[in-house]
Design brief:
Number of helices of chain B: 15
Radius of gyration of chain B: 31 Å
Shape of chain A: elongated
Strand content of chain B: 5-15%
Distance between the termini of chain A: 26 Å
Number of helices of chain A: 11
Helix content of chain A: 40-55%
Radius of gyration of chain A: 32 Å
Largest sheet of chain A: 7 strands, mixed
Number of strands of chain B: 11
Strand content of chain A: 15-25%
Shape of chain B: elongated
Number of strands of chain A: 13
Largest sheet of chain B: 6 strands, mixed, barrel
Oligomer: heterodimer
Helix content of chain B: 40-55%
Largest interface: A-B, 64 and 58 residues
Number of domains of chain B: 2
Number of domains of chain A: 2
Structural class of chain A: alpha+beta
Strand order of the largest sheet of chain B: 3-4-9-6-8-7
Distance between the termini of chain B: 31 Å
Chain lengths: 402, 438
């Protein structure tokens, strides 16, 4: 059978097929753009943090009252946590990676205020910090206990002689050159030497473009609210959280244990908008594909019923079952392809709108062919059953009056 | 006649139950999804204090680094917060009708009962103008007056929730409360107050609950209250005491002014310019004059309170609704084709085109209405889901009557819009012609 009769069938009632093609086009535009956003957000959430997130516990405490001695309180707390079986290492840190709150600074390679500076997150912890976070030092050395000074919030700390930097920060500062042993300058033009390089570690703000830049100063931060980072042996985390909360609470009544949480929880909270977007868009895509598929199935079935007589006549005139199946499949393919062509235009339009209005990343063009192929497969699957039913129409139908 | 049409519509709907449910489902999910996202958008973009949003202004002054702007991507912007000492001086100058300097902090509450553990509670440190400026409703007592600010009296205003926790919800005005070692006197308890968005502090978070309590800004110095909110600094300064910190160039205090009339804005900016020019003579504020005030809705825009993701979702969900409508039209067309015989017969028996048309429209309106109602229920479920996903305070994502009416109107309008063309097509069927061919 040639194309002629099929196309002329379609043209006879063109509004229906046109509507389906339009629906397919809009579906394609939504699904491709939504899928692209979903994939990007999933990639973002799955970035390697360079930290043993699964086993880290974060404790927030706050002392109060006139006679509260913050330094001895921190020392006692850390000793107590360390004595609990199942604890690998613990430290006090000025801020918590992946938490969404913390402090940043600017570093330079020359002592010149007007020179370009590199933005970075700034951490302060003691010689146990790397172990407490499960962060790997790729080169150089860790801090020594002699380098750890107490840092109070209202007293300007002396600039430390040694710092650690992440490889990403080292690259931003020194490019191809080896950063180990090099000098960096702080905003007040005091200087520190890079003694160790961390291969990779995420900073505090998951949405920041300098997320991989961190500089670590040796020190024991003694603030109003103090943050302890503790690493548990694998599998011990959930048992340790209530234990730490209870033992710290009982050990000192002049200090409030604000919260003891897993770093996994804290990180999930920082990524909750991305997670929400992934969930919502996944629901949208599922509903949309389901609806469009159902409509295609529904309409094809209806057409089969409507055209029983026509099918019967063709069968009576010698068309084989396979010809009937081919006819329905081809009709459907024509509509789908028309929809896909229009859909590509719409998809690009929507992608452009998202990019220009909301500064989303430009759509990866490879999603387009992938989307069209998927569309062909899905819409063919949707029409298989109705087409099979059409093929089973008996040639004798043609001879009946109604 | 309407009843008859309704009867015919229901009969026709029952004849193709699968197709009818598909149409209802299409409209329902379309309405459900678009109403969910539209409600979120509506809540995020709504005016939290419509009665005076045009006379309340956030104040910004450019005290930043002479070498580079506060925001390199938007160099025209001054820092969005002010330094502590500038806030103190502006309060003293008192050039607006009312003004408030404020920041977020927290205090340790030490209950009188020795058995109860001390606990931390969030505090908004602000001067007394906060309450009348932002129309804060009170259950018991009131805010404090300017003399309490001037004398740095340890007074506190509690939220309903904290008053519930501490005093079981009774009138606690006059009670004494020890916090951070200082004995405070309770002067007021506010009623439920949930401005959405939290316009007075979009910097720390535009969508969260009000802090547990309010204490005077003038206590900052004596009690060495640290800020829990964001602070930004540019200058390397020797900080060796809390006073040094208060005198530093770090910006961490939010400043709002209330004017009598929106037209006084220029005059107020002129005041700011005069203040800054004076400071320039002391060697501060070395950037070009760049002082601005923003009314509430401008301030919401400034901080992009409506998240981009939300706008994207609204756009995509309305495209989704389009797909649902296209489905409905296609399904209706097909269905009406199947009714050719019936229509033909009715036309042959004397039914006019108008009557047929009306009957078809009633049928699609019923489908639209049913779909809309189910869609509303879906939107309620969707909003619950959104609250969980975004961990927003319970009750924030709610469907008010405006959105409910909008949803039903959109549903019926979509149903009728989808039905118009198919119904018109059906009316074109000539009487009896259809019968002949059979």
């Amino acid at each position: 059978m040639g194309l002629g009769p099929m196309i002329s069938t379609l043209m006879r009632s063109k509004t229906g097929p046109l509507l389906v093609a339009l629906q397919i086009a809009v579906t394609l535009a939504i699904v491709i753009n939504a899928l692209f956003i979903v994939v990007q957000r999933i990639e973002k959430m799955n970035r390697d943090p360079g930290i043993d997130v699964d086993n880290v516990i974060v404790t927030y405490v706050r002392g109060f009252g006139e006679d509260f001695d913050v330094v001895s309180s921190i020392t006692n707390d850390l000793d107590l946590i360390r004595s609990i079986p199942g604890v690998v290492a613990t430290t006090v840190s000025n801020q918590i990676p992946l938490s969404g709150s913390g402090s940043g600074t600017r570093l330079r390679t020359v002592p010149d205020e007007t020179a370009d500076a590199v933005n970075t997150t700034r951490y302060r912890w003691d010689e146990n910090g790397l172990d407490a976070l499960g962060v790997q030092l790729s080169r150089g050395r860790n801090f020594t206990p002699q380098e750890i000074d107490v840092v109070m919030p209202t007293i300007d700390p002396a600039t430390p002689a040694s710092v650690l930097v992440t490889q990403a920060l080292a690259n931003d500062l020194f490019g191809e050159e080896d950063a180990l042993g090099k000098t960096v300058y702080w905003s007040d033009m005091s200087q520190s030497t890079i003694v160790g390089i961390i291969d990779h570690m995420h900073g505090s703000w998951v949405n920041w473009n300098k997320f991989n830049n961190s500089v670590i100063q040796p020190g024991m931060q003694a603030d109003t609210t103090n943050k302890y980072v503790t690493r548990a042996e694998p599998g011990m985390r959930d048992a340790l959280i209530p234990l730490i909360e209870k033992q710290l609470g009982e050990s000192n009544r002049r200090r409030v244990v604000k919260s003891v949480r897993s770093l996994q929880d804290i990180a999930a909270r920082s990524y909750r908008r991305d997670f929400a977007m992934v969930t919502i868009l996944s629901v949208v895509m599922t509903l949309l594909i389901g609806l469009t598929a159902l409509v295609i199935v529904g309409l094809s079935s209806f057409h089969v019923t409507q055209r029983k007589k026509q099918i019967g006549t063709r069968r009576a005139l010698g068309a084989r079952r396979i010809d009937i199946i081919k006819q329905f499949m081809f009709e459907n393919w024509l509509i789908t392809t028309a929809g896909a062509v229009l859909g590509v235009v719409l998809t690009v339009g929507v992608a452009y709108w998202l990019e220009v209005s909301f500064s989303l990343t430009r759509l990866d063009w490879r999603y387009l062919p992938a989307g069209i192929v998927t569309l062909w497969v899905l819409s063919s699957l949707a029409v298989v059953e109705p087409a099979r039913r059409a093929a089973s129409v008996s040639p004798a139908v043609a001879t009946r009056s109604i | 006649m309407f009843k008859y049409n309704l009867k015919l519509a229901l009969k026709s709907m029952r004849r193709n139950p699968i197709m009818t449910s598909l149409m209802v489902a299409a409209i329902a999910v379309g309405i459900g999804l678009s109403m969910t996202t539209l409600t979120i958008y509506y809540l995020m973009s709504s005016n939290p204090i419509p009665e005076k949003s045009d006379v309340l202004f956030a104040v910004t002054m450019d005290s930043w680094d002479p070498l580079r702007p506060f925001d390199e991507d938007r160099p025209e912007r001054a820092p969005h917060q002010v330094t502590y000492h500038d806030a103190e001086r502006l309060l003293a100058l008192s050039q607006g009708k009312r003004q408030v300097a404020m920041f977020e902090s927290s205090l340790i509450i030490e209950p009188d009962n020795e058995d109860e553990l001390p606990f931390e509670a969030g505090a908004r440190v602000a001067n007394g103008d906060f309450f009348p400026m932002f129309n804060v409703p009170f259950t018991y007592g009131s805010g404090w007056d300017r003399s309490a600010d001037a004398a740095a009296e340890p007074v506190v205003v509690l939220t309903k929730a904290l008053n519930e926790r501490l005093y079981g919800g009774v009138d606690s005005v006059g009670q004494r409360l020890t916090m951070n070692g200082v004995v405070f006197q309770v002067v007021g308890v506010i009623d439920t107050w949930e401005p959405t968005p939290r316009f007075y502090d979009p910097i720390n978070s535009a969508f969260q609950e009000v802090n547990d309590m309010f204490i005077p800004f003038s206590l900052t110095r004596g009690m060495e209250m640290p800020s829990n909110g964001s602070d930004w600094g540019w200058k390397s300064e020797e900080i060796n005491s809390f006073t040094d910190w208060l005198n530093s160039e770090s910006v961490w205090v939010q400043y709002f002014v209330e004017l009598d009339d929106p037209r006084d804005a220029d005059e107020y900016v002129a005041h700011l310019d005069a203040y800054v020019s004076e400071q320039k003579r002391l060697g501060r504020f070395q950037r070009p004059l760049n002082n601005n005030i923003y009314n509430v809705m401008e301030w919401m825009d400034y901080h992009e309170v409506v998240a981009r993701d939300t706008k994207v979702l609204v756009g995509l969900s309305f495209m989704f609704l389009t797909v649902c409508l296209l489905s409905t039209i296609a399904l209706l067309l097909t269905k009406f084709v199947g009714k050719k015989n019936e229509i033909s017969l009715r036309r042959a028996l004397g039914a006019s085109r108008g009557v047929i048309f009306k009957q078809q429209i009633v049928e699609v309106a019923v489908i639209g209405f049913t779909g809309g109602l189910i869609g509303l229920l879906l939107a309620l479920v969707g909003l619950q889901g959104i609250e969980v996903l975004y961990e927003s305070p319970p009750g924030l994502a709610r469907l008010d009557w405006v959105m409910t009416i909008t949803a039903i109107a959109i549903a019926i309008a979509s149903g009728v819009l989808a039905g118009l063309y198919p119904a018109w097509r059906v009316c074109q069927i000539p009487p009896a012609a259809q019968l002949k061919t059979q």
